[in-house]
Design goal:
The structure holds two protein chains of two kinds. In chain A, β9, α9 and β10 form a beta-alpha-beta unit. Chain A is of the alpha/beta class. Chain A has 15 helices and 14 strands. In chain A, α2 packs antiparallel against α3 and α8 packs across α10. Chain B has a domain of 112 residues. The chains are: A alpha/beta, B mainly alpha. Chains A and B meet through α7, β8, α12, β14 and α13 of A and α1 and α6 of B.
């Protein structure tokens, strides 16, 4: 194959409405590479990530200059059945059939997508196919040995799922790995018992031309310093613990700090004047909020990268992260842009330190920004992807 | 790997260890008897406020014994508060004591009320001590919980380090390539 590169992407969902997670990560990379390659994205018609209901029309569409091919989800996820199958996996005596059944229920179940990707991979129509998220049906059923070099961005979290024997063939079929962090690489290499070919890449961000702190404060009537949370307000993201810690901190110290929440709430938010939930906002407003906050809180224990952490680094705001998440802890240490808590006392200690020490906040902000520029600026990410694609093609040709 | 190992500009480990030292210091030196008493009182006040008790009640309870309790001795029922005239009245009452004893026996009542007055004092003292002890235990539980969480976090980190070292051992055996 000569001339312009031809790349395929496989991801469980893809759309302008999806503003986070591996899907957004995939979109940013596809749009980054479209200037250097002909890019096709293979995905499902789902928007909803719980039941994978079909939402987008089947067939071809263009989004952000990228050709998107959507295939229907043939069977929605039955949450109760999925929960029961997940429970079965916890047992040490579960069988390979249990794991297969779990994967089929995990979804999004789209045989049409599987058949298409397997066919184009076998025909060698693409220079490389980049698969996002090892845990979904779309990657699991399509990442197989073929003529086409395969790059896998596992986006693995430290939940132990990657240790299931089920995933081994998919991991073995990847020609190169696109890791999000040092911790993810160590975790997967530890589980597979061998060094894995690839690089630690991560993702950049759609950076703003400017940020307007005062406009944000004026629009939402927010005065004084605040701790910011950005993301789904959910149990799995550690939000209840953040609420408890924060309200206790206010009560015990008499601090005037408030907590501002951005994102869709799927659990009740405490009715306290110090907690402000402003719902879903656009990208520009998110950046304005980042510029206005004292620090960003990331209470989640399971993160494979946390793009908003990187965005806070770029905005020169320190991050207050959950120490139980190895990736976040590592990012804080490597960047110098964040601190991490394992319990309430440490949460309180960190907030007291940050509130009292403006020069430290500024120093951490600068360190985080420099870390972002060095590792997550778009030219750096692009160079790594092109290098990985070349390495995968070379390995396949050998 | 192109990601640098640790930041040179801000030593996060050092900041975290300073924060942890401050927490440990606070735990070691904090909570003198006086502070425990303060905390205990604050909690009691909070309970009283939420149940909408008279806000002066606690203050009176602690300082003005005479408002909520009474001093009682065998002579109390014969005393009067009417000054000079009261003195004469007291003398007459004493003089008539044997007569009134013909109608009823005040001694058990005097004994019961005296004892009740003492019991009231003991009860208050006991409740006060119990509150202090509960607070002390509550603080101890909180500290033990924090230590447990800390131990869990350390254990988790050690596990991760073990896994990382295991994979490094594998890496050493087989030269790594990016292609």
């Amino acid at each position: 194959m000569t001339g312009r590169l031809k790349l395929g992407f496989v991801v469980q969902r893809y759309g302008a409405e999806i503003a986070g997670g591996a899907e957004y990560h995939c979109r940013l990379i596809a749009e980054l590479l479209r200037d250097h390659a002909e890019v096709d994205v293979f995905t499902t018609c789902a928007l909803d990530y719980v039941e994978w209901k079909n939402h987008y029309p089947e067939g071809e569409a263009i989004l952000g200059g990228v050709r998107v091919l959507r295939f229907p989800v043939a069977r929605q996820r039955d949450i109760l059945r999925f929960a029961a199958l997940s429970e079965a996996l916890q047992s040490a005596r579960h069988t390979a059939a249990d794991e297969e059944a779990w994967m089929d229920e995990q979804g999004p179940y789209s045989p049409a997508l599987r058949d298409h990707v397997l066919r184009v991979a076998d025909e060698g129509r693409y220079d490389a196919i980049i698969f996002f998220s090892y845990r979904y049906w779309t990657t699991f059923r399509t990442l197989r040995g073929s003529r086409t070099p395969a790059l896998l961005a596992p986006t693995a979290e430290d939940d132990g799922l990657y240790r299931l024997p089920l995933f081994r063939p998919a991991f073995e079929a990847a020609t190169q790995f696109v890791f999000n962090s040092v911790e993810e690489r160590l975790m997967l290499e530890g589980a597979l018992g061998r060094p894995l070919p690839g690089e630690i890449v991560g993702v950049g961000s759609a950076l703003p031309a400017s940020m307007d702190e005062s406009a944000f404060r004026k629009r939402h009537g927010i005065l004084g310093p605040f701790l910011l949370y950005v993301g789904r307000i959910d149990l799995n993201k550690g939000c209840p613990e953040l609420f408890d810690h924060f309200l206790r901190y206010r009560q015990e110290t008499g601090s005037s700090l408030s907590l501002v929440l951005i994102g869709r709430a799927v659990l009740p938010i405490p009715e306290d004047p110090a907690v402000r939930a402003i719902g879903f906002v656009d990208d520009a407003e998110k950046w304005n909020a980042l510029s206005a906050c004292m620090a960003l809180a990331i209470p989640s224990k399971l993160e494979s990268l946390s793009m908003v952490t990187l965005e806070a680094f770029w905005a020169e705001r320190p991050v207050v992260a959950n120490a139980y998440c190895a990736v976040l802890r590592g990012q804080c240490r490597r960047s110098g842009g964040g601190l991490y808590y394992a319990n309430y006392d440490e949460f309180r200690g960190i907030l007291e330190t940050l509130e009292a020490d403006a020069p430290l906040r500024a120093r951490m902000g600068r360190a985080g920004h420099a870390y972002f520029e060095k590792n997550y600026a778009w030219p750096v990410i692009l160079e790594k992807y092109l290098r990985l694609i070349a390495a995968a093609r070379e390995a396949k040709a050998a | 790997m192109s990601i640098e190992i640790e930041s040179k500009d801000v030593d996060v480990r050092k900041i975290m260890s300073e924060i942890r030292e401050r927490i440990a210091e606070k735990k070691r030196g904090l909570y003198t008897d006086e502070e425990i008493r303060e905390i205990a009182e604050r909690k009691l006040e909070a309970v009283l406020e939420t149940r909408q008790f008279n806000p002066d009640f606690l203050k009176d309870f602690k300082t003005k014994t005479e408002v909520w309790n009474y001093a009682f001795n065998p002579e109390t029922i014969y005393k009067t508060s009417r000054g000079g005239v009261g003195g004469l009245l007291g003398t007459i009452r004493n003089f008539l004591k044997p007569v009134q004893k013909l109608f009823w026996n005040p001694t058990p009542m005097i004994a019961a009320l005296s004892r009740q007055s003492d019991l009231n004092l003991y009860t208050v003292q006991m409740l006060h001590n119990l509150t202090l002890e509960l607070t002390r235990l509550n603080l101890e539980v909180q500290e033990l919980r924090a230590r447990l969480q800390q131990t869990e976090a350390n254990l988790e980190e050690l596990k991760k380090r073990e896994r990382a070292l295991e994979s490094l051992a594998v890496l050493k055996e087989q030269p790594k390539s990016t292609s």
